[in-house]
Amino acid sequence: MRRLTERLTRPLPPMRLRDEKGAAAVFVALTMTMLVGCAAIAVDVSSMYADRHQLQNGADAAALAVALDCARNLCGDVVGTATTAVRANTTAADAADATIGSPTVTVTGRSTTVTARATSNHFFAPVLGRSSDDVTARSSATWIPTTRGRANFPLAISYCEYQGQIARHPLGNTTTYRINATTQLGGSCNGPSGTTLSGYAVTQPDTAAGCRTTSTLGSTVAGYADGDGGSYGGSYGGWYGSWYGAGYGSGYGLPATCTTAYLGSLYGSDLLIPVWDKVSGSGTDMRFRVYGYAAFHFMGADPYSSDPALIGYFTHAAQQSDATTASTLTTAPDLGARSVYLSKQG
User: 52 or 212, which is more confident?
Assistant: First the structure.
């Protein structure tokens, strides 16, 4: 028993220790490939997912850019538009470890689909014989007639008046002109929902401190009643009623917050204008039902002279919507104003 204990506690020869160190080195060498493989998975795969996320941002931006152009009837070079948008929104990936390719663009009806491509270059995987992987991202966008929006200038127009303006200056004609009434002011006309009041209406702003009116398709907007001329302006459609009726109200019927400076800030923009098909109430309580939305390219205003007018032309215009599925939207008549939204990806 003593001999057995002595043998167990006796120090190992130096040679044996050196042999075990060698075995550890061999073990590390044999497992190095596996360790590198794990690093490749941890780093390169994560990098590839990051590249794809960046690419998806670019595809979304490209789909919206193409759709906004097409909604304005200006599709043009859709591949060039998409390429610019993809690259502008994937700069981080492009500069780091991905090479951005040319996107594929299809336009069908009122929808566009952009497929963006990139090559994700790896750091560790080349040791395993895989230097890169291709990544793709797809996004679709659709445009439809606007169903909700904010009029930055509080003005609504009757369906008959809109049709009269378009008959004189068709959509697509970019010749600037002063809007002059084509229907009898304060009279009636036959619209899509029957007989309705013709002309224009200054609408009630969303807030007392603003000069904007938000509305929704099928809802009503209130006419603006200004000081002394509220009844006159409300009864006769507001704009030509109260603007031209200088003796019937202060400020020619416009809210005091619609200053010359504010109007000047809108020059060069597309104004959303609700088009009504039915009027309810009377006097200062008139409300105008929104049938659809027109767009007016605003180049100037002369609201405080003896001949007040908006200057510009009716056009096709587009705005980005925050809707994500078609089921959240209702089809409206196409009067020039359109909304663009990203389609839900499956």
Answer: 212
